[in-house]
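RECORD TYPE: inverse folding
INPUT: structure tokens
STRUCTURE:
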């Protein structure tokens, strides 16, 4: 069990280092990371992500001056790839 726990901790550490940090990003900066959500049900074939009021600019009082709505649409295929190369896709929806 000790080795399993150590592997788990290593993977958890990698995940924490790659997650998108909840910090302000200033003009000229470039930041990258992952936004992680709970596992989707296997029958879900598409997801629409909407971020409301993403702030692009603030005034001198740190109040939002310019905001936008960001939308992303994702589709997925769920299935299995077998050792012999066969692909078996589930019929979602």
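DESIGNED SEQUENCE:
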């Amino acid at each position: 069990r000790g080795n399993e726990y150590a592997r788990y901790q290593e993977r958890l550490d990698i995940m924490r280092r790659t997650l998108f940090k909840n910090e302000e990003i200033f003009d000229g900066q470039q930041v990258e990371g992952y936004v992680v959500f709970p596992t989707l049900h296997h029958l879900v074939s598409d997801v629409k992500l909407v971020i409301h009021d993403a702030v692009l600019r603030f005034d001198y009082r740190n109040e939002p001056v310019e905001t936008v709505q960001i939308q992303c649409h994702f589709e997925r295929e769920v299935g299995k790839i077998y050792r012999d190369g066969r692909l078996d896709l589930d019929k979602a929806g």
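NOTES: The mean pLDDT is 86.
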